[in-house]
C-alpha cells in the first residue's frame, strides 16, 4: 500500500472547548475539522473513544466495543429534540482549562437520562427505527455490555469478580431475573450507546468528506473489569473463580525503573484461533 505524505494533529475530543466541562462530538468538533482542513492538514489523531473506567483512562475501559457516553454532545441532542433548553438551564460552572471528571460525569449522565425520558415519551418513529436497527446490528457486543453496566451500577460499581456468584458466573436464571427486574437500567445503556455511535458516525463521515483521515487508537489489552472479560472468560487466562492467572505489564525501563503491572488479563490465543478470531 502506498501512503501519501501527510501531516496532522493529535487532539482527543475531550480536549475540545465547550460549556459542558468536557469536549464532545458536537459543534466544536466540526469546527476543529474545518480548522484542520483550512491549515492543510490531512490527519486527526485521537486516543481510544471507549468508555473510561478506573482513573478515567481510555486505556482501562469497560468495553473494547462501546463508545464513551461522556462524549455525547448535548447541543446535538437539543437539535434532535431529545433535550430542551430547560434541560440545560441547570448546567454547573465548569473549569475551562481542565476536565474535572467527577462533576462532568454527574452532569452528562443527568442529561443522558433526560434524553432517554424524552425519547420514551415523544421520540420520533424514525429515531425509534434507528435505535432498533442499531440494537440488532450491534447485538454481538451491545447486549452483554448493557447488561454488564446495569449490574455493575446495581452492585455499586465494584469489579465484576466481587459480584454475587450467580451474576459473576453468568448463571442464566440469575441474569434473566436481573433483566426482568431492571429493564430500564439495561435499555438506558443501549440508548446511550446508540446516541454515541449516531453522533460519532456523522462526525466521522463529515471528517472524511473534508479530506481528513482519522487515526484511531485502541488499548493492547482489554481491561479485567470489562464486559468482554466477564462475558468471554474462556478467551483469557483465568481460574474457575474468574481471577486472572497471568496479567499484562512491562519490565523496568527508562520510564519506570520498577516496571509496570497493568493487570490486564492475557489472551488465550489458542482459543481465539480455534474460533477464527471472531
Explain this structure to me?
The protein has about 280 residues and is mostly helical. It has two domains: about 10-225, Glycosidases (TIM Barrel, Alpha-Beta Barrel), CATH 3.20.20; about 230-278, no CATH class. It is about 45% helix and about 5% strand. The protein contains ten helices and five strands. It has helices spanning about 25-40, 75-80, 100-120, 125-135, 140-155, 165-170, 170-180, 185-210, 225-230, 270-275, and strands at about 10, 45, 215, 245-250, 260-265. The strands form two sheets. The protein has a three-stranded parallel sheet with strand order 1-2-3, with helices on one face. A two-stranded antiparallel ribbon has the order 4-5. α1 links the parallel β1 and β2. The model has no long low-confidence stretch (mean pLDDT about 95).
- Domain unit count: 2
What does the main sheet amount to?
Answer: 3 strands, parallel
Could you tell me the mean pLDDT?
96
What is the helix fraction of residues, given as a range? Answer: 40-55%
Query: How far is it from the N-terminal to the C-terminal residue, by CA?
Result: 25 Å
User: Uncertain runs with pLDDT below 50, 5 residues or more?
Assistant: none
Strand runs, count: 5
Oligomer: single chain
Under CATH at level 1, the class of the largest domain stands as: Alpha Beta
In CATH, the homologous superfamily of the largest domain goes by the name Glycosidases
Envelope shape? globular
